[in-house]
UniProtKB/TrEMBL annotation:
Pfam families: CLP_protease, LprI
Tree of life domain: Bacteria
Record field: transmembrane: 21-39
Cellular component, GO annotation: extracellular region
Keyword field: Membrane, Transmembrane, Transmembrane helix
Taxonomic lineage of the native organism: Bacteria, Pseudomonadati, Pseudomonadota, Betaproteobacteria, Burkholderiales
UniProt-recorded name of the protein: Lysozyme inhibitor LprI-like N-terminal domain-containing protein
Lysozyme inhibitor LprI-like N-terminal domain: residues covered: 235-301
Amino acid sequence: MRSTEHPPAKGAPAQSSIRRLLGWLCFTVLMIPGAAPGMDFKIYYQPQLELKMVIGEGRIQEGDAEKFLAFAKMADRDDEGLVILVLNSPGGNVEAAFRVVDAMDHVRVYTTVPDSARCASACASILFASGERRSVVGTGLLGFHSCYRRDGRSYAEDSLCNEIIAANAMQRGVSHAGINRFVKQYGAGDMAWVGRDAACKSLQGLCKPGLLEIQRRTKTALMQSFDCSKLISVQAQLICGDAELAGVDKALAEVYGQTMKVSANKTRLRADQRAWFRNSRNACGDKACLLRSYHLRIDELKRMRSQ
């Protein structure tokens, strides 16, 4: 069983040569040792951007290219015509990762690693590096190390794997120095975690920001996308991902707290608030409905407080 982990080497053969070499690496794995299997995709609607984006999480494995294509068909495109792919993965099978890249090239993808997300090994050096646009935003991290070959309990650097990954990355505008920076220093049991500053300033060509990062409003929405996608209810996701909704949610909390302080019947007020939450707020499925519900409740609480 061969197993592999990250950064590349020298040379930049044509894409067809990369594909031929991949046939030799069918059992190569490029990921954090011991990471749990299973890459899943889902659609997340980002209300601030008014875009459906794809969230990709878990170990990269065979069949992921087909799954990605199915979800990409349900996603929207940004102003540059790209599908946004949010990555949170420990890496995985190298051949499977390049099959996903083929699918990404067909779709045209904006790869991003936002707040709380980590993209390591094959995820960082293959998937992330292959986006037409690429960004690390907020607290997102990329993890790099050399490809390795596992033989029983021992590990050895896999130079062929490194070469293939380097060739692909360099064809996509990543500098030779940037893609090879961590090969010698970080082996199978190590990981160089790189944040936005290092990834986008020190590793030439690795980041390739899109239009969404130009404006603070859209950049913040992109930054929060992974965290917001984790919330269970539609209402919570909408409020988390939209500055205006987050603002009225905060305003309501403040007005409710002030009203509670002067209320003569706190038990009744708590019950009324729970009823509003259940029957009004949670009955909404879009931003307009939530705004109406919040504003009506805020006005109602202010009237109570003034009586």
